Amino acid sequence: MEGERMIVSVSGGKGGTGKSTVAVNLAVLLSRGYDLVLADLDVEDPNDHILLGVELENEEPVNIMLPFVDYDKCTKCGICGKVCDTGAMLISPDGLPYVIPRLCSGCRACLFACPTNAIVEGKRTIGYTYDTEVKLGDGFRLITGMLREGEEHTPPAVLAAKERALSTRAEIHLVDTSAGTSNSVATAIDGSRLVIAVTEPTPLGLHDLELILQLTQSMNIETWVVMNRAGLGPEDRHEKVVKEYGSEIVARIPYSRDVVESYVRGVPIVLSKYHSKEAEIFRDLVSKLMEVLG
Ligand code: SF4
Ligand code: SF4
After folding, report:
1. How far is the CA of 80 from the centre of ligand 1 (A)?
2. What is this structure's pTM?
3. In a 10 Å sphere around its CB, with 0-12 CB exposed, 13-18 middle and 19+ buried, how is residue 9 labelled?
4. Ligand 2 in contact with 105 (CB < 6 A)?
5. Which of 13, 79, 201, 221 is the most buried (most CB within 10 A)?
6. Is pLDDT at 150 greater than 60 in this prediction?
7. Given phi > 0 = left and psi -120 to 50 = alpha, else beta, which region is 124?
């Protein structure tokens, strides 16, 4: 695959399914055969750097447009308040508009609609991206997106981190998405050759697995399923759903103390417990993945 670029995403409908554990272990193993970048796009709670035991480096701000009103030009027509669909442009009782930054998505609708050009462009920082060197495996870069506390507009931060990752010349871009099936997840997995959906054998895990399979099917992306904490509950209904969506369960990772320990120590289990059953499962998964990646 020399010269080609491929995106593989690790996702999961539910938070806490072990998605990031899968992503960091795959990253370490894949770095031995490929020039790889791991992109942590779980911008509300990025934790790949913690699982890899590294400090985030090379911070860059993620800015979005913030409108400012020139009150000398404002005629109090109220149009800006009407076109704003997030409630960020508040029209006060005296007719003057005020911007609530936290609610503003930076869409520019108010700016284009203002008949007197009273709205001008400013900016505000909603988060940061980082580019960190990881010296595990054969070494790789970790690109991280992080939203500032209290911010709600995740897609611009996801997009900024994804663009920073894609601007590198890596062969494989391994993307770790946020939980759920929101716009941010769709933005993160867009363009993927393959999505690995991590689930667990619980009713909630099943519910959220079906949602992520619906999303990937609607985006026409091949999807594999990894069952984390296998053995904790029945899997027959998961298997039925996976089959219905034309997918397959490619790996079952049992719930184990070793996995929890590696999580706490910040060393992926494929390094901390090379001979463990779980490390072997990750190696088998990577072999399967390499058949697809070429
Ligand atoms: S659209 Fe322009 S002129 Fe009208 S209220 Fe808003 S800022 Fe003022
Ligand atoms: S930029 Fe968009 S979201 Fe922000 S105040 Fe204007 S219309 Fe509302």
Report:
1. 6
2. 0.89
3. buried
4. yes
5. 13
6. yes
7. beta
Write out pLDDT tens, residues 108-123. 999 999 999 999 999 9
Q: Cα–Cα distances in Å, from 51 out to 37, 55, 258, 276?
A: 16, 11, 14, 18
**Burial (CB count <10 Å: 0-12, 13-18, 19+), residue 256:** middle
Tokens of 200: 């667990």
Cα(231)–Cα(170) distance, rounded to whole angstroms?
36
Report the C-alpha gap between 27 and 68 in whole angstroms.
43
DSSP 78-138: -HHHHH-SSS-EEEPTTS-EEE-GGG-----HHHHH-TT--EEEEEEEEEEEEEEEE-STT
Which residues of the chain does CATH 3.30.70.20 include? 71-117
- Is 99 a pocket residue for ligand 2 (Cβ < 6 Å)? yes
Condensed to tens digits (0 to 9), the pLDDT of residues 240-258 reads 999 999 999 999 998 888 8
Residues of the chain with CATH 3.40.50.300: 6-61+127-293
User: pLDDT band at residue 259, thresholds of 50, 70 and 90?
Assistant: confident
Name the fold adopted by 6-61+127-293: Rossmann fold (3.40.50)
Candidate of 68, 99, 103, 104 to mutate for ligand 2, largest count of ligand atoms within 8 Å of Cβ: 104
Which of 99, 100, 119, 152 gets mutated to test ligand 2 (max ligand atoms within 8 A of its CB)? 99
Pick 71-117's CATH classification: 3.40.1190.10, 3.30.70.20, 2.40.128.50, 1.10.3670.10: 3.30.70.20
Closest approach atom of ligand 1 to CA 69 = 7
